[in-house]
Amino acid sequence: MKARISWHEHRTFVGESGSGHTVIMDGKPEHGGRNLAARPLEMMLIGMGGCSAFDVVNMLEKARQPLARLELNIEAERAEDIPQVFTKIHILFRAYGQGLSEAQVQRAVDLSLTKYCSATKMLGHTAAITHNLEIVDG
Description:
138 residues; alpha+beta; N-terminal domain of TfIIb; GMP Synthetase, Chain A, domain 3; 3-stranded antiparallel sheet
């Protein structure tokens, strides 16, 4: 896996993945940025959420669960001292679908967080990761 990051101006950076996709990152105005895009650490949370969501959707499709939509809301706290690593991360999984098995959705979430999602395993070395699950019928 590879990535390339290019500095453009102020605190704007363009990241290019090894698969050829690009993302823009920027900083806070008080740090020289212009607030044009997500911060690099926000991208880490987005990546972690995407990794886990990918797992959950994949497992529920294999289990033939009627998942219509999945949303993850993530909140994180950081250390006050440098390096300001994540110390707490909470994920709210919200699964939508008529007739979803709560047990199967919970199992998919648990397996993602404890076994399959590489990003949660890495971030779990500095942060306590907790989660809740809501199932919305319909």
